[in-house]
Amino acid sequence: MKQICHFLLILTLIVFINTSFGQQVYLNLFATGFSDPVDIANAGDSRLFIVEQAGKIKIIDEGGNVNPVPFLDITSIVIDGGERGLLGLAFHPDYINNGYFYINYTSQSTGGDTQISRFKVSSGNPDIAEPGSELHILTIAQPFGNHNGGDLDFGPDGYLYIGMGDGGSGGDPGNRAQNPLEMLGKMLRIDIDNGSPYSIPATNPFVGDPTTLDEIWALGLRNPWRFSFDSQTGDMWIADVGQNAWEEIDFQSATSSGGENYGWRCYEGSHPFNTSGCPPASAFVFPIYEYSQSGSPGGCSVTGGVVYRGSQYPALDGHYFLSDYCGGWIMTIYYNGISWVTINHGTWSGEGFSTFGEDVTGEVYVAGLFTGKIWKIEEIINSVIDKDNNIVSSIFPNPFKESTTIKFEYDATNTYKLNIYDVYGKLVFTVDNITQGEISLNRDDMVNGIYFFEIRTNRVISGKGKLIVR
Q1: CA 194/CA 176 separation, integer angstroms
Q2: ∠ at Cα 268 (265, 273), nearest 5°?
Q3: Spatial distance between the Cα atoms of 410 and 100, rounded to a whole number of angstroms
Q4: Which of 313, 328, 351, 363 is 20 to 30 A (C-alpha) from 191?
Q5: CATH, domain range 12-379
């Protein structure tokens, strides 16, 4: 598997109240060859499931290998293109026993309406779904072809949450996001384990209120393309795509009883958009983070992510990852006990990041819509030698002018490879088939500066460090 991507040496930091520095990250290529990947999910095992917009779901094994046969192919019933297509995937919390998974797509048979459906895995092959097992759960009419939302996810309460856009066009001409009798522009919450095909949770905030649909959990959303739950705390993070000026991240605590109104179309982010007939600003819940499309970091469409809860990079614990489809940057947000803090980890041009996802261990991945690549997010080392879980024992001399030697704990039963990158993540050179625990390096064409290296043992990073050439 080709390794690499980008490193940044200096973090650009944006903060709300105070300044704080955090970890840098880079992208390691995990798998490639996908066509318009828009969602990443896991089924509680080592596999990753990649949703392609045209209507296929493919499987990547833990080694980064893509199964040649799709898990599901429903291209014949999906309208795709623009903001339409197969857009979301969620596995039932008891998938290991019932084999149920749920998808969100725009249907050919209804001319592009949103279809929430349940499918079942094959009883004889865990890598293949039964295409004829579809059960329609919910159909929602779409007046336009854009702002379909697309995401769905099970909350820690076991209920299915569905993020719906405002129905499209521009500026929400039907004022649907603020209409409590419309499902568009809402976060919905349904019970798919009871009822036919679903029931309403008794704890939904508007149950029994004839002026509001029972399915509504929250309202005032424009196009919540991606939302997720923190796997540790249960908090909900919603990335709501803006109109022409502001992109926003909304936060809902796990202690919430629902009913929040996030403001659209009255407000775009925290900024007035069309306040005609709207209640006072105090009636709305404004984002914890917003950025101007024309400012810094800039962009056109926020791509929401997940909160890191993996074990490989403890310094990233609690960081929420996000990006922008046009901006190409990757940022994290975390709470430092006083305020929300953001860190800009750099820009990767030409990817068109469309979605983030987690594997079963909580490690985070991001998909490039333009390139069809799935990248694993990893932490860049910030010291000469990281002593924890590192086979590197010494680098001498370092800094160096002509040559240096890297020594590491060698095991003849393993295969070793050395990769060296510059601070922009460009692979400078590789040494393959290392047969001893000592690597002598000449500077050759390496200009003065800082470089990062990794020693890979059977595809796993076993050693890493920093080189300084003077």
Answers
A1: 28
A2: 60
A3: 46
A4: 363
A5: 2.120.10.30
The mean pLDDT of 12-24, rounded to a whole number, is 35
Split at pLDDT 50, 70, 90, the class of 464 is confident
Domain made up of 392-469: CATH architecture: Sandwich (2.60)
| Residue closest to 304 by CA, chosen among 39, 19, 6, 13 | 39
**Mean pLDDT of all residues in the chain?**
90
Q: At a CB cut-off of 8 Å and minimum separation 6, what does 348 contact?
A: 5, 6, 27, 328, 329, 330, 368
Confidence of residue 394 (pLDDT cuts 50, 70, 90): confident
Cα dihedral 165/265/234/120 (nearest 10): -10
More reliable by pLDDT, 12 or 156? 156
Q: What span, in angstroms and rounded, lies between the C-alpha atoms of 351 and 332?
A: 18
3-state secondary structure 314-374: HHHCCCEEEEECCCCEEEEEEECCCCEEEEEEEECCCCCEEEEEECCCCCEEEEECCCCEE
Are 221 and 164 in contact by the 8 Å Cβ rule? The answer is: yes
pLDDT digit string (tens) for 348-384?
889 999 999 999 999 999 999 999 999 999 876 433 3
Give dist(CA 219, CA 431) in Å, integer: 55
- Predicted confidence at residue 427, as pLDDT, reads 82
**Where do the CATH 2.120.10.30 domains begin and end in the chain?**
12-379
- Contact yes or no for 51/72 (Cβ under 8 A): no
pLDDT at position 277 over 90: yes
Predicted pLDDT of residue 395? 87
Burial letters for 256-269: b for 16+ Cβ neighbours within 10 Å, e otherwise?
bebebbbbbbbbbb
Q: Would you state the structure tokens that stand for residue 413, as one six-digit string? A: 């039963």
